[in-house]
Known about the structure:
Structural class: alpha/beta
Distance between the termini: 18 Å
Number of strands: 5
Strand content: 15-25%
Strand order of the largest sheet: 2-1-3-4-5
Order of helices and strands: EHEHEHEEHH
Radius of gyration: 14 Å
Helix content: 40-55%
Shape: globular
Number of helices: 5
Largest sheet: 5 strands, parallel
Amino acid sequence: MVNILLVDNYLSIGLLYREVLQDQGHRVFVALSGKQACLLAQQERIDLVIVDDKLPDSKAEDVLRILKGFQPHIRSILSFSSTIRTTLNAHLWDGIISKTHDFRVLESEVEKLCHQPSSAVSPLVAENEEEEIAPR
């Protein structure tokens, strides 16, 4: 199980993404703004954040920088609509997805990042993997 924070100003999208990711066995939090995301990250351990490119109160990149300031291990996915109006700094993100009704793209990118070997992977992910492997 991975703790995922969804940051999207459209509640309906956040709820749909949450349902899809919870069905995969993840614990999912939804924030409707950058400010809410930062407050949640101060209270909960977050392993992966999915940030919308059009937040009402801040830029996605700024939210990511603040969240990584709290929890440097956080992996990140930028979620964008087909009408990008901002310059995309792809090097800041571990993954980039386009908003679509095909949730397989979301599921695939999340699973890839959750299982990709990296020194940045949260200790929580490593603990869960060790628990599954260790004899009981």
